[in-house]
Design brief:
Signal recognition particle alu RNA binding heterodimer, srp9/1; four-stranded mixed beta sheet; 8 strands; elongated
Length: about 130
């Protein structure tokens, strides 16, 4: 099993809220840092959450631990929608504050496509399934 794991810089709560709305899903379980946990970390931040997006489980958390050992890495999540209306509805929720890589358009391999980096730094590619 391969599970994409998204690390955020203290704004995982916001990312979860946006993804829940955009993909009509819920994150669970959500484990937050509390006072009695031994981890030297900010209270209320997300230690672990799991979310299913179109049949694929992803993990999400605020970055913690030895931050000197972590680095930016290239990852892109591709989402294939059955209908253009579904793609547009999801993109409308996620596009605020994003960086557009390829604008929303029809391309030879998809009825509709867009590539962008959301306001949390996650790169997305949305396409509509042919056929």
């Amino acid at each position: 099993m391969l599970i994409p794991h998204l690390h955020f810089c203290g704004n995982c709560n916001e990312a979860i809220a946006m993804y829940e709305k955009a993909f009509n899903t819920k994150a669970k379980p959500i484990i937050r840092k509390s006072k009695n946990m031994p981890v030297d970390w900010v209270e209320g931040k997300i230690l672990h959450a799991a979310m299913e997006i179109l049949g694929q489980t992803i993990y999400l958390n605020d970055r913690f631990g030895n931050k000197n050992m972590s680095h930016d890495c290239a990852i892109k999540l591709s989402v294939i929608f059955k209908k253009a209306d579904d793609l547009i509805a999801c993109y409308e929720i996620m596009k605020e504050g994003s960086i557009i890589i390829d604008p929303l358009e029809k391309v030879s391999f998809s009825k509709l496509m867009v590539q962008f980096i959301d306001r949390f730094g996650v790169q997305w590619g949305f396409m509509v399934k042919h056929g």
